[in-house]
């Protein structure tokens, strides 16, 4: 079952080898024609380029909806329409009202992300994306049509919009990952992980675009100041929802439903090679192996129970949940959701300009993140980024709490400017490390058999903490002002420790090798020097791990664990009589 892809690779290699041994002269007509070819593969085709660029609109939708709300909270018309009148004649938002308006999107995204997967498996990726874009539009209509003073209608509109945003945040990367030619990534010197991480780039672009449009409309006295920004979201949804139906279904979905010829045709166009090319046959074999592994797992609640009985799966599930929570607890959304409010409190005259600067830094430095993740590895990047952001938040919080005149911020302009500088430095660290990397690292934690369910739990953790930060931030800042930054600094320090002691280095390793390291209990701080077993040892290990999973055994015996911990840098294998890995 698990070696179908391996057999296809061997078959292709044998054919190519026999082809290379033939003379360069014409082949006799009586000889059997080879059924597998191995011509050079273009690193990029127009089909793959247009498709990849188009579906990235899904990332823009995610980022755009995240970035726009920060500007709304400081727009005069929005405050008069949905805010509360104070004694001095001005309008403001209570902590409860602002918290609910901001955070209800996160609850919707959580529900949408959980519902999107099963629907996509049933009706396909394309039609699922189109359906959730319709839901997105419904939520936008509810928001745009909200009359004064029905702030709760606007809040519920964001909740419904969250269904579409959350579903697209799951389905668009899924569709990209399933349809993107792998050869393109390797030809460009980029791993699959960095290729997937590029989705984050378009999320940051959406945030930046939202900040720019808010800057252009905030001076309008009527409701166009915020309705125009929302209306442009409607346009993004129309482009993605209508356009996606004209693109092919993913090869993985076609294979799942037995449409192998359609899968080959799609891959042939995207790769720019014939359908009987070696690369296409290899990838079809890998898809087949993954689908067989998924079908071997039980459905319903039994499938969830089985997942927790897999080799070291409880540990890995908990680690994924913690990493996603820590990504939110870095404090990035403190700036993305409440940036205009934060910098208004710091005495910055035009907070929309500051938000544009932050958004530009976030977008620009994400390009650097695609380089960092590939050339410096996961562990070094996350640890360095965590320390960098820890320092930035310590300075930001200290200046805001001790140097800034909170009651009259313009009296301390230097403190406000310093806070903006360190906020930009913080965003630089986040965009290059924890922003794109956590999603990629969590995807490496789990074997194919359990990846969908385990990643659903990790994603739920991310959105849950997203909601908690969005809702409780007004209450916390109202009590301790900018000392709130110390909370995020403490979480960043904890995150560095978690990465050092728990996260294995995945640079240059396959998903199968990552699975081996977790099962072997390789110490995280030694994982970068770990050498994988030979192919023969790997086959024996795979057979034993399959037996363990079937029997519900989730850990090796004590002797195997001691061997793995004491000598994780050497070649290791599992024989049929052993319960755990032993040094070769």
UniProtKB/TrEMBL annotation:
Gene Ontology cellular component terms for the protein in this record: membrane
Coiled coil segments of this chain: none
Cellular compartments annotated: Membrane
Chain positions covered by the region annotation Disordered: 1-33, 544-584
Biased composition (Polar residues): 15-26
InterPro entries reported for this sequence: MFS_dom (IPR020846), MFS_sugar_transport-like (IPR005828), MFS_Sugar_Transporters (IPR050360), MFS_trans_sf (IPR036259), Sugar/inositol_transpt (IPR003663), Sugar_transporter_CS (IPR005829)
Biased composition (Basic residues): 1-10
Pfam families: Sugar_tr (PF00083)
Keyword Transmembrane: yes
Chain ranges of the Major facilitator superfamily (MFS) profile domain: 51-507
Transmembrane feature ranges: 43-64, 100-120, 127-145, 151-172, 193-216, 228-247, 317-340, 352-373, 385-406, 418-442, 454-476, 482-504
Amino acid composition bias (Basic and acidic residues), ranges on this chain: 544-576
Entry keywords, A to Z: Membrane, Transmembrane, Transmembrane helix, Transport
UniProt xrefs under PROSITE patterns: MFS (PS50850), SUGAR_TRANSPORT_1 (PS00216)
Membrane disposition: Multi-pass membrane protein
Family assignment from sequence similarity: Belongs to the major facilitator superfamily. Sugar transporter (TC 2.A.1.1) family.
Protein name: Major facilitator superfamily (MFS) profile domain-containing protein
